[in-house]
From TrEMBL:
Family the UniProt entry places it in: Belongs to the AfsR/DnrI/RedD regulatory family.
Protein's name in the database: BTAD domain-containing putative transcriptional regulator
Native species: Dactylosporangium vinaceum
A family per Pfam: TPR_12
SMART domains xrefs: BTAD, TPR, Trans_reg_C
Chain ranges of the OmpR/PhoB-type domain: 1-80
InterPro entries associated with the record: AfsR-DnrI-RedD_regulator, BTAD, OmpR/PhoB-type_DNA-bd, P-loop_NTPase, Sig_transdc_resp-reg_C-effctor, TPR-like_helical_dom_sf, TPR_rpt, WH-like_DNA-bd_sf
UniProt KW keywords: DNA-binding, Transcription, Transcription regulation
Gene3D superfamilies xref list: P-loop containing nucleotide triphosphate hydrolases (3.40.50.300), Tetratricopeptide repeat domain (1.25.40.10), Winged helix-like DNA-binding domain superfamily/Winged helix DNA-binding domain (1.10.10.10)
Listed SUPFAM superfamilies: C-terminal effector domain of the bipartite response regulators, P-loop containing nucleoside triphosphate hydrolases, TPR-like
Record bears the keyword Transcription: yes
Amino acid sequence: MVVGGEARAVQGLRRKAVLAILGLHAGEVVSTGRLVELVWDGAAPPNAVNALQSHLSYLRRTLSDKAAVRSRPPGYVLDVGPDGTDVAIAERLIGAGLRDGDDAVRARDLQRALDLWRGQPMADATGVTWLEEQAERLGQLWLQGKRALLAARLGLGHHAQLLPELEQLTREHPFDEQLHGQLMLALYRMGRQADALSTFQRLRRTLRDDLGIEPGPALRELESAMLRQAEHLDAPRAAATVTVAAEEPAREVAPQAVPAQIPLAVRTFAGRDGQLARLDALLPAEWTPPGSAVFVAVVSGTAGVGKSALAVHWAHRVADRFPDGQLYVNLRGFDPADTPMPPADAVRGFLDALGVPAERIPADLAGLSALLRSQLAGRRVLILLDNARDAEQVRPLLPAAPGCLVVVTSRDSLTSLVAIEGAVPVPVDLLTDGEARDLLVSRLGARRVAAEPEAVERIATRCARLPIALAVVAGRAATRPDLPLSAFAEELGRFRTTLDAVAGADPASDVRAVFSWSYRALSPAAAAVLRRMSLGPGPDLGIGAVASLAGVPVPQARTSLAELDRAGLVVEQRPGRYTFHDLLRAYATELVETADAEDGRAAAVNRLLEHYVATAQAAAQRLDPARDPVPRAARHPAIAVPAPPREEAQAWFDDECRSLLAAVRLAAELGLDEHTWRLAAAMTTFLDWHGQWQELVATQEAALRALRRLGDRPGQGAASCELGQVYARIGRFDEAHQYLWTALSLFEQLDDAPGLARAHYQLGWLQHAQRRYRDALSHSEQALALFERLGDKLWRARALNATGWILGQLGEYQQALRLCRDALVENREVGDRHGEAGTWDAVGYAHHRLGDPRQAVACFGHALRAYRELGDRSGQACVLCHLGDAYADLGDAPAAADAWRRSVEILDEFDPAQAAVVRAKLPGEWTATVRG
């Protein structure tokens, strides 16, 4: 700290921190809370406010001016005038030096600024996070000023003097392209063209090896200019000498143009509150002197989702925050009638708007970009770059100095701009239901929309809540106020596809045309993946399914999906799960029908079904290793996708369930009987354990029809057994009897002993469900005898447990306990974890009935853990009910209620009738709450 030309030391880290924080906010009030938070790094002691006041008193004494640090609610301000700190002076001088003007004056200002750096900023305030961040900011400011000074001195012809310094700086900053460009220029002007080009190649290797990127367009253009020995690279004919005169008055700068190029905003803009808030967050509460970054936002999303409308709406809303103007350009990245705009053309347009005379505008991109940065330095300009194709088209248009804010819209997510330039992603998705309604309200009026809520919902659904499609329909409805909205909803349904229904009068409003602009920009591989994805029958697709449809290896499919995701044509709605909205699906369907031959489409669907069959069979085996594998293998190998491990098999079925159900329906519709029954068979365990019994009925009936067409009688018997079991579960006993006796008859005709044993086993459970326990015991004992004769230890253990359970229902608890204990031993011997879970439940039930509820609780605990481990929701619900009964007999009412409540929560998902039975056990108050 310097007072009256005298350096005065400040003792103590906290005091230094207080002074530094106030100095970096010179002239601004810093609240007491903010000071405490920053000085003590978020870990302030209880007496922090008192300590802060003591530090401030010390600083006033050291400054010999009590008025220098003023108390001004809600905090304090350091009042030392506009140039009272080195930081303020440096930022002002660098801001001036970054503006376009005479190189000698710029060099003088910049050198004066850099001379203010004396060692490492904040070197004696380490350990205070905010000050360390400010030290980093000041380091970047120094580097920014140094680059600008070097550029000015190169403009003066000082390349020979600068060479050693440039070589040192490029070693210290190996990724800095601007410094390397300046070194190349200095070498070139000294006649060392080969060394200049070697510098470019060395940087290129460094960027490739360390960052995996190529040099930017400015540096590539400089290399190209050197190769063709462009005249503009030559040294200035008259080299000037820089003399830094501290007292020399500043030269007057001519007034600059203030452009206002933002297009007309959409009057009826609606929704997008989240995205608007994200953009608002980029605006600081107050504009401060230049900081360390230029804010860039990337507004990205699929075609027709309203990116440009959002950006333009927001730009108009905040235009007054940018007093130096607003620049706009349509970069034509996805244009139906023209090629993407070259960055050089966009820069020339900006320079012209900023009032730069034509004779001062360079011809090459590097010079144009540098001049634009100079023109924007120190100014507050909002720049809207609309419809960008890629990051390379955007980079030459970015300012280098803070104060400006750039909003880029693109169908591409521009991930490299986010990764390298630190751009803030603002993804734009389909409208929500509420936003879609608001859009229609804004176009048609609240009264008309409120009068027909069902029609509004149908319109929004048919338009996939895509703004451009909704706008087309709303436009038609607005021109026909005499027609009800239901007429337009019905019109949408009459067309072959909604794409025909929302075709606009010009390409900009024709949804099909808008999609085509994105499609034509794809690589051939990604375009093929998009088309083939439309053949998938489910709501979304996993990476293995996409690879199978496309007929490519998984890594290649992943690369294409990444391209489609960046282009906004597919959405990775969850990690590894891809989908697109209904209108894009319709567009992709049209494409695949015209671009892919019929046999190619059929082969793709066949590969997909084989993938599902192979993976579902493997996952089912991992889910329940004791289950019988489906005997047949796929006729053709599916795309090689490894089966999920045991712990992920449950999640795989959760993810794929709807797609698998749709695949069964598709295979049945196409007459692919082998795929139909095999896929249905692979799903039985998962559907049963999750209580999806209606889905299990549908898949097994499809399987049975397919097996009948194939003439596969053993398969028909197995499917009939499955259907009998599930119909018994849902209380449709007549159908259960029919299917199970049909299975029994088939197996008797075929002399199929294993099938006969299974049929008796299921008939035993059917009779049990109807409380015909003697008949149930007869079938169960027959099944047990057959399994013993066959030497099938796994199913013998299950039949042994079933027999014991039925004996328990007959009141023969001791015999039931003996048989179930034997079954438990055999379950463990054969590794049947699911059979073991069911047997623990039966053992617990027997103990409970024998008057030992405490032992029963322990047994039920074993069963519950096993069912949870396996993911069997149905089994968990049953055991929880039994566990609640045991707790109730122990007198532990809270534990009983908790078990019953958890049972009800599961049963409510798939068995409301049984849920009501268990709910009746709960205390009245809780029951009333749930029912209400």
